[in-house]
Amino acid sequence: MLTIYKLSLTQMLRPKRLLILLFIASVPIALSVVAAIFPPDTEDLVSFRDDFLMGPMVISAVLPIVTVVLGTASLGHEIEDQTMTYLFLKPVPRWGIILPKFLATITVAGVVVIGSGVLTTVIVPEGSVTTSVAAAVGLAVGVLAYTSIFTWAGLMTSHALAVGLVYVFVWEAAIVGFLQGVRWLSIRHYTEATIHGFDEIQFAGDTATLTLSQALAAAGIVVALFVALTIRRLTRMDVA
Amino acid sequence: MTLSDNQPVAIEPGEEVANSRVEPTITASNVSKWFGDVVSVNDVSLEVRPGLTGLLGPNGAGKTTLLRMICGLTRPSGGEIKVFGEPVRNNPELYRRIGVMPEHQSTYDFMTGRAFVELNARLQQVPDVKTAVARSIEQVDMQNAQDRSIGEYSRGMKQRMRLAAVMVHDPEILLLDEPLSGSDPRQRIEFQELMVRLASEGRTIVISSHILEEVEAVADRILLLVYGKLAASGDYHVIRQKLSDRPYIVRVGASDVRTLAAGLITEPSVESISMDGEGHIQILSRSVRELQLAIPKAAQALGIRLTRVDPLDDSLESVFTYLADR
């Protein structure tokens, strides 16, 4: 499994794709530097961090974009370019292929997304250790849940990237934004509720429908369900 | 020799007596595969024993699909395939004993050739990776290019390094789909020698190809697939002999084709002569050797200069078309 994990890391750390993702992840960090140099009032600063940097940028943009790009590619690209046959034709069970690939995706996505979120909370004044820890845990939950969904999507369709972006920007950003009752089906809200659970100041007005335990349980179900679906799919599918 | 549904060309009794004593390593029983309405492999039953077997057929005959089913990448729509007596699908432990080189050329192009072979060795859990990798790369004569990125390789080099990766765990069965694609004549000869040597060590090797000449030099047995059906199986030379009464068409260009045609039509080896639209004659014959002598003899006697003599249908496809039409 370590061999496949290392192979997957190498595949994901291709310079071009990684540079684009790092650029996206660096935008909130750059803005937090600006906020640190030209600080507004304290109250505005917290609002700027939560309602502009962490909410719309890190959680709603950086997190899903990074995970959709890496998650859909982790298995999908190898099936598309047929290199997956080299793994399938080895004495390795299918779950033994999926697990290291999933872990490698989480590793890269986690470093990029959590790094972006934590640095943002550290740089913006008025932050604390609790703020940063909450952001790290919440974003880790988001990375796990999104990656499991998008890895599965990468197996199901060759248009997984488009499907993933529609899910993020139509379902989560638009529909769930208006229909509070379907927050149960939004990874973004699991992430925000987890951050709020660890640091009550963050997203105080936004997470009324989900408690920390509910958010963690829901995210856990999503991860278990989609990892199981991915293993099932990979076990049954024909490979060219 | 006849070709009817599910009745491949039979080999003569006793032709494979020695080989048939050995247990088959691969068996397929009434295997079919269809994709929607398209039948790719149709009710194929076969046994493959140690030695070198050529899986022949024109493009689209179902060779790749059959190989994919044998190695477990594709699930048969019907029938059963066993390798070493076990079902191969979802049985990854069997891959310790099987090496498969798929038809596609994809590799991890960012790796060096050696790193690619090493990856395969590690995935196969080979005990001594370093030795196995060096041995395998040496077998395909790629030592000089092993530290170059695969992305820089020619098609032939890539094929050889893929073959090294397939052989790195010293498998008992090798399934090679169009392995000679992109190889030059010298590499072909080396490949054929390597395969003969590996087969002589008791391995089962199946090589698919749509080019008869690629396989005829090395294969003990052939399996002929046409339109997804097993059209013939058995000793290559026996089948080749049975095809000897197949009519051949030869195109001849000459300074005066009409006079040449008139001179040749009385030859016993000539069945018919027609003109094509380009000023050549096409001669149908069932006795090519006699025709080869008759054409220059007639041309010399008539004072005609020959400009070209081309066999038109000596391809495997024409062999199959002939088999299928009979």
Describe the structure.
The complex is a heterodimer of chains A (240) and B (326). Chain A is an all-alpha fold. In chain A, 80% of the residues lie in helices and 0% in strands. Chain A starts with a helix and ends with a helix. The mean pLDDT of chain A is 88. Chain B is an alpha/beta fold and 326 residues long. Chain B has eleven helices and 14 strands. The longest helix of chain B has 16 residues, at 185-200. Mean pLDDT of chain B is 84; it is low at 1-18. Classes of the chains: A mainly alpha (240), B alpha/beta (326). The A-B interface holds A 3-4, 7, 10-11, 14, 81-83, 85-94, 235-236, 238-240 and B 68, 71, 73-75, 90, 92-96, 98, 100, 102, 104, 106-108, 110, 119-120, 122-125, 165.
* Rg from Cα of chain B: 23 Å
Radius of gyration of chain A: 18 Å
The H-level CATH homologous superfamily of the largest domain in chain B, spelled out, is P-loop containing nucleotide triphosphate hydrolases
Tell me what portion of residues of chain A adopts beta-strand conformation: under 5%
Cα distance spanning the termini of chain B:
9 Å
Largest beta-sheet characterization of chain A: none
Largest interface: A-B, 24 and 26 residues
> Terminal Cα separation of chain A, in Å?
23 Å
Which band does the percent of strand residues of chain B land in?
Answer: 25-35%
User: So what's the overall shape of chain B?
Assistant: globular
SSE pattern of chain A? HHHHHHHHH
Quick check: average pLDDT of chain B? 84
Unreliable segments of 5+ consecutive residues of chain B: 1-18
Number of strands of chain B: 14
Helices and strands of chain B, in order, run as HEEEHEEEHHHEHEHEEHEHEEHEH
CATH-derived topology of the largest domain in chain B: Rossmann fold
Q: pLDDT below 50 for ≥5 consecutive residues: which ranges of chain A? A: none
Mean pLDDT of chain A: 88
Measured as a percent range, the helix fraction of chain B is 25-40%
Tell me the quaternary state: heterodimer
